[in-house]
Design a protein that fits this description.
By secondary structure, the chain is α+β, with helices and mostly antiparallel strands. The protein has one domain. Helices cover about 45% and strands about 20% of the residues. Strands 1, 2, 3, 4, 5, 6, 7 and 8 form an 8-stranded mixed sheet that branches. It is globular and about 50 Å long.
């Protein structure tokens, strides 16, 4: 009889644990278009097969074992929050309605669950292509944000996220996650420097109204046309020219051409 009661208690604990995990586990962008996923899978293999290990090491894949274990993580669809949208945003309006699609998806390239670098899939001439790989700082920011998100959801007694979107504010070099949980929307800054500048909690949840108010003042005082910043290797933040492509995609293309030339000379 005692054994049966213990078994019932164990089952209840197991069920409660599963429910708790489902409540507080972050959910990334759902509904990835099949052609985006295919482009990402093919692009990752192309980059891994053509970029030398010395260059891959700069992206966080420092050994052949890392390269063999590298896989795609759950992607983030990239959105833009324009200066005009910030200026005209009305209090209590859904900030998600002010976002603009950029025709880009960011896939963390992970090793044993840890993001090491970022693969970007963009629409070029109507087709989805994996045209860029790189960005160890952004990968590290995603790792920290994912871990922090579970904690802050628990602290604020929020349920599971309905969506997590990657948002860029090009005018002020800003990168955020927009977290939606039920009717609630929050920004999570992806830079401790930016969080410190605006007195936001590092990798914490900030209301859209607070973010928009701060960014509106920043844009008015110091308008910028540069893009952000966390991509492209592991150095300090800098300015990236449009479009957001790193030198590694160019190297991959060159190595592909060299490989074809070598195969042609061997035939």
């Amino acid at each position: 009889m005692a054994d049966k009661n213990l078994a019932k208690v164990a089952i209840r604990i197991l069920i409660l644990s599963i429910v708790a995990m489902s409540i507080y586990t972050p959910v990334l962008a759902a509904g990835v278009p099949p052609d985006v996923q295919t482009a990402a899978e093919q692009g990752l293999q192309r980059f891994l097969n053509t970029i030398p290990l010395s260059e891959l090491a700069l992206m966080g894949l420092s050994s052949e074992a890392d390269v063999r274990a590298a896989t795609l993580g759950a992607p983030y669809e990239q959105f833009a929050l324009s200066a005009d949208a910030i200026r005209t945003h009305q209090p209590n309006a859904k900030i998600s309605l002010s976002l603009t699609r950029t025709d880009a998806w960011l896939f963390p390239v992970t090793v044993q669950g840890e993001a090491r670098t970022i693969l970007t899939v963009s629409k070029v001439d109507g087709r989805w292509e994996a045209g860029d790989i790189g960005g160890t700082r952004r990968a590290a920011a995603f790792n920290t944000a994912t871990a922090s998100l579970t904690r802050v959801l628990q602290q604020q007694s929020l349920k599971a996220t309905d969506s997590v979107q990657f948002v860029r504010v090009f005018e002020i070099n800003g990168e955020f996650l927009l977290v939606t949980s039920g009717k609630n929307e929050f920004f999570m800054p992806l830079s401790t420097e930016m969080a410190s500048q605006f007195n936001w909690p590092a990798y914490g949840l900030v209301s859209p109204e607070e973010v928009v108010t701060s960014l509106r003042t920043q844009i008015r005082q110091q308008p910028m046309e540069a893009e952000p910043s966390l991509g492209g290797g592991g150095g300090s933040p800098g300015v990236s020219p449009k479009p957001d492509r790193s030198m590694f995609s160019t190297l991959a293309s060159l190595w592909e051409k060299v490989a074809r030339w070598l195969r042609w000379n061997q035939e």
